[in-house]
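// run 5 | inverse folding | seed 20
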């Protein structure tokens, strides 16, 4: 086994389990990158695509039929008094 891999394993074994999982995810990302399956789109192109997607969302106006946004949001969130707290009203 090469020394770099040994060093990575040594450091990984001293990490808490959630960070070991993060290291695994990063390793898988690097494998995908090496295979060329990771997107290499430049930042300006990403920004342009995002801007176009946002423009399309605005054009769709998905919430345009909501008459009272506050009551709609409360219905969606199913607001309720929190346990142990007195209601402000």
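// decoded
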């Amino acid at each position: 086994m090469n020394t770099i891999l040994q060093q990575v394993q040594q450091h990984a074994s001293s990490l808490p389990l959630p960070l070991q999982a993060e290291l695994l995810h990063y390793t898988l990302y690097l494998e995908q990158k090496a295979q060329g399956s990771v997107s290499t789109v430049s930042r300006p192109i990403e920004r342009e695509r995002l801007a176009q997607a946002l423009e399309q969302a605005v054009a769709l106006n998905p919430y345009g039929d909501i008459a009272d946004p506050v009551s709609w949001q409360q219905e969606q969130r199913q607001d309720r008094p929190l346990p142990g707290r007195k209601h402000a009203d």
